[in-house]
Structures are given as structure tokens and as C-alpha cells.
Amino acid sequence: MKIRIGILGLGGVGGYFGGLLAKAYYKSDDVEIIFIARGATQNAIADSGLKIVTDDTEMIVHPKLVSNNPDEIGVLDYLICATKSYDIEESLTSLKKCITPQTVILPLYNGVDAPERIQKIFPQNDVLLGCVYIISMITLPGTIRKIGFYEKLFFGSKTASVSKLNEVQHIFKNAKIESYLVENIEETVWEKFIFISALASTTSYLNQNIGEVLSIAESKELYVQLLNEIDAVAKAKGLKLPKEIVGQTIIKLEKSPQEATSSMHRDLLAGKNTEAISLTKFVVNEGIKYNVKTPFYDKIANVLLP
């Protein structure tokens, strides 16, 4: 039987990595890729395919199916989730018909609270931990723009079977996805969270892009203060992160496209709902839980979530 993989959320992350999977397995007898989408995105992909534009290439890919109807989608072996974090419960609850206890779920959200939230909905399922490093976004319904060369996907689990994890890695590698099956995945996910949480909070609060945050002394100082606060929270949780995580994170940002910004900042500018609860307020709440003071996060959370 074919391995059936659903891609829920066709934004910058789900659209890009889902697109690579669709390209690799479009004519496969072993793997079937289903895009789960609705509205303008579903219509655009059904009519013309999913377009992925990079700095020097452009391609159009087609999934086996693009649908938002659980009866049409059918039972899934794997579900890769990449919606916005505020959509987790609603989007997954709508797909209960497609998810059996054997379905493996891989969340690729910006925050770190997704696996626990998903596990509450599907307590019998293997819910992996995962994160990605990529700068990509929707430019039009059915069109993904990726900026720069950097793209990495990390995943792992302390509870899922080795055979399932190896199968996922094999599927990714065959699709030419730069993926890493990581033993200490919680620390890896938190390293990414430290990067994106501080960046999203700073860019959204100051209304500045990466280059501006780094070049304006007061902006960079705020960014570093946030890094120190979230690092302290991670240490209080007992996570074994690199000693120089703050400096390493700053270097990552310096290597990022300077004209780019966070997805939360883009959503804020577009007047859309934002992930401030998962990316900013979550740090404040964890600080309270572990008795760590986070005054700068608290100040920004009060502005972004009045």
C-alpha cells in the first residue's frame, strides 16, 4: 500500500517542503502527497499547481490531491502540520476522520508548544518534534517565494519507533530535503525557538527588518536582552543548550538576508492575526512558571497583545 502524507498549511514552510515532496513523489507508486488547503489557495493549486520561486529557479509542482474535505482526503499515514500556531486546534480537529492512532504527526510550527497541544487532541498518536530554518512566504495564493540558500529541517522523537523515524528521513532524503533526524530534538527545537521568538518579538514591536534591528544600536540591544531572557528560561527548564547560544543566535541573524523580517511582523503589517501568544507571551508564562524574570518580553507582550 502507498504511504499517504498530508501537508496541512501551505504557507512558506508547508508550501516549500510540501512542494519538494510533491515534486519527488508525483508519479510514485509508493508515496502519495496530499495538500490540505481551502479557498483561494486550493483553487490556485487545483488550477495551475503550486509555484515555488527561489532566487534563481522557478518550478511548478502538483500533489496527488488538493482538498479540504476529510472524506476526499482519506486516512493518512503521516501528517505534516505547518499552519499558524493559533490554528492548531481548529485545523486538526477538522481532520479527525483522516487521523487514526497509527497516523504519525510532525508539527513544523514557529513555537514550541505545538506538540503538547496536538497530543491533547490525539493522545494515542506519535507526535514528533520538529523545526525548520528557512526564509519563505506566500506571495500569491499558490505561490511560495523562498529567499536565500539556507534551508534545514530537523525532527525527532523520544517515543516514536526507530523504523517510523527512519522511514520519514528516507522520504525526506529522496525528495532532496536537507533533513536531520536528531536525538536531542527538544534542545534543537528550543535553539530555533530562541532565534525566532526574539526576532519575531523585536521586529514586530519595533516595526523593523533584520538589517535595521542589527544596525540600530537600541534595536540590537533590545534583541540581545530578549535573547538573554529566553536563554534564562530555557536553562531554568533544564534544557542543555550551547553555552554561547546568545552569541551563536546573533551570528545566525547576521547571516540572514538583511532585508527580510519575521513572519509575525509580516502578518502584523498585513493586519492579520499573529502568533504573539506562542512566540512572545509563551516566554512570559514560562518565566512565571520557572520563576525567571522577563521584563522585556513582558513589555512587548503587553503591546502586541493588549
TrEMBL record:
Domain Ketopantoate reductase C-terminal: start-end pairs: 184-304
Enzyme class, UniProt record, top EC level: oxidoreductase
Phosphoprotein is among the record's keywords: no
Bilayer-spanning residue ranges: none
Cross-referenced NCBIfam families: apbA_panE (TIGR00745)
Function according to Swiss-Prot or TrEMBL: Catalyzes the NADPH-dependent reduction of ketopantoate into pantoic acid.
Name of the featured protein: 2-dehydropantoate 2-reductase
